[in-house]
Each structure stands twice: as C-alpha cells, then as structure tokens.
C-alpha cells in the first residue's frame, strides 16, 4: 500500500532502498537516541530489517514505509508500524527516523499521522504506542503533536543516568476518533517487561518534571 501525504509518498520498503537506509543509519546524530550513535551494519538491514518489514506487511501486522518527497522522489527517511511479537493486544508500535537535513519541518509528524490513520483504519488497531528515551525531546514532541499521551516512564534501576529513562506514549482508537484528550491522562502499566527485576524500574511521571503530562 502506497500512502500519500501533502508532501510525501510513503512506499513499502524494498531492496532498492537499502543504500538509503544504510546511509541514514550512518549519521551518529540520527542514531544518537537509537543506538548511542552507532551505525547499523548493512548486513543487519539486508538480512533482518528488510525481511522482517516485508513479512509484517504480508501478514498485515505492520510494515516499514520509506518516505520520499512527492515531487523530487528524494529519500527523507522512514516510518513504521509493528505488532509486538508476544502481545495479545490489538496494538501497533509506531517508529520513525528521518535524515538530519529534513528535521524540523513537520515531516515526521505528517508521515506518522498518515500511518496512524492506516493503523486505526485498514489495520483495525485499538491502540498505537511509541517509546523513546526521555532525552529524545524531538521524538517526544512528535508524539505529543500526534495527540499521544504518556503511559509510563521506566528509569535505570540504579538511577544512574536519568537521560536513559524510557517513556511510552499511546493513542487509543477512541481518542483518535473523538479527537479529544483522555480524561485520565497518565497511568502506569505495571506489567511492563522492563520492571521489576530488569535493568529498569517504573517511575511516576512526577519524578520527571520535563515529561509532558498531556498533548501540548
Ligand atoms: C525524531 C524525529 C523523527 C523528528 O522528526 P521531525 O521531522 O524533525 O519532526 P517534526 O518536525 O514533525 O517535529 C519535531 C518537533 O520537535 C521539536 N524539537 C526537536 N528537537 C527539540 C529540542 N531539542 N528541544 C525542543 N524541541 C525540539 C521541534 O521544534 C518540533 O516541534 P514544533 O513543531 O512544536 O516546533 C527526527 O529528529 C529523527 O529522525 N531523529 C533521529 C531518529 C529518532 O530519534 N527517532 C525516534 C526514535 S524513538
């Protein structure tokens, strides 16, 4: 399925996109909050990222769409939806990554907005969620602009570095359909796989004054 937005064409990833994907992940700034700045090996993209995305598309459990400029066809980045392997919920995880030169123009929000419509529409999801590090302000701002809300915050168990805290945002179908804020803005999901016993513990959002408590 090719998705068109006002400025972009989003097409399912294919082998012809591999060079662009490798180049995208070779920028340490792009990878800063993803892998600590490390690039992704070409073999990982060809042998794992591409086949997995194509398998998700075939089974209608998500997919990875490459974003190109509508007029010029220039590579901008990608957006993806993925059903978590062990989840029995009707949910899809949203992710996005753009080349640095295109940041700050509203493109990630525009592309993600279009994918959310597909996720709640043809894919029939009940919940979209996305996670990032607390320090990834740009990514969190995209989620807030999409109308998503913080569901939990997980911090390193030893509280070593608050920047390593992880934040999950979600958008429920009912709120997307109504286009309005939930009445209960924050809740903690105690079944999160990172806690207890892992390297993270769940924290209340009040421990983080810089975590937004609702879409701004
Ligand atoms: C995160 C990312 C996708 C955002 O893409 P984008 O096209 O620049 O996003 P948008 O322009 O739609 O929105 C970004 C918002 O964050 C804001 N922002 C970005 N960095 C910020 C910062 N350091 N402090 C405050 N606001 C910031 C922008 O001003 C903008 O908000 P605004 O529209 O209210 O001004 C892009 O930076 C990226 O690809 N980063 C690397 C990969 C990554 O981190 N992906 C997410 C992993 S979960």
From TrEMBL:
Signal peptide: none annotated. It holds the Pfam family Acetyltransf_3. Residues 8-174 form the N-acetyltransferase domain. InterPro entries: Acyl_CoA_acyltransferase, GNAT_dom, N-acetyltransferase. PANTHER family: GNAT FAMILY, PUTATIVE (AFU_ORTHOLOGUE AFUA_3G00765)-RELATED-RELATED, N-ACETYLTRANSFERASE DOMAIN-CONTAINING PROTEIN. This is GNAT family N-acetyltransferase.
């Amino acid at each position: 399925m090719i998705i068109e937005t006002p400025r972009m064409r989003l097409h399912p990833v294919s082998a012809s996109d591999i060079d662009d994907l490798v180049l995208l992940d070779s920028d340490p700034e792009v990878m800063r909050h993803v892998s600590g700045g490390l690039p992704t090996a070409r073999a990982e993209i060809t042998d794992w990222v591409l086949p997995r995305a194509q398998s998700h598309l075939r089974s209608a459990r998500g997919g990875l769409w490459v974003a190109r400029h509508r007029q010029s066809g220039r590579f901008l980045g990608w957006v993806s939806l993925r059903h978590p392997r062990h989840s029995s919920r009707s949910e899809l995880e949203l992710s996005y990554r753009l080349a640095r030169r295109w940041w700050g123009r509203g493109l990630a929000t525009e592309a993600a907005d279009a994918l959310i419509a597909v996720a709640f529409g043809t894919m029939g999801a009940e919940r979209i969620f996305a996670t990032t590090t607390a320090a990834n302000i740009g990514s969190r701002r995209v989620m807030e602009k999409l109308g998503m809300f913080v569901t939990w915050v997980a911090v390193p168990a030893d509280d070593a570095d608050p920047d390593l805290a992880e934040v999950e945002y979600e958008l429920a179908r009912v709120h997307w359909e109504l286009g309005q804020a939930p009445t209960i803005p924050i809740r903690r999901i105690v079944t999160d796989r990172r806690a207890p016993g892992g390297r993270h513990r769940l924290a209340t959002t009040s421990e983080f004054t810089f975590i937004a408590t609702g879409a701004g």
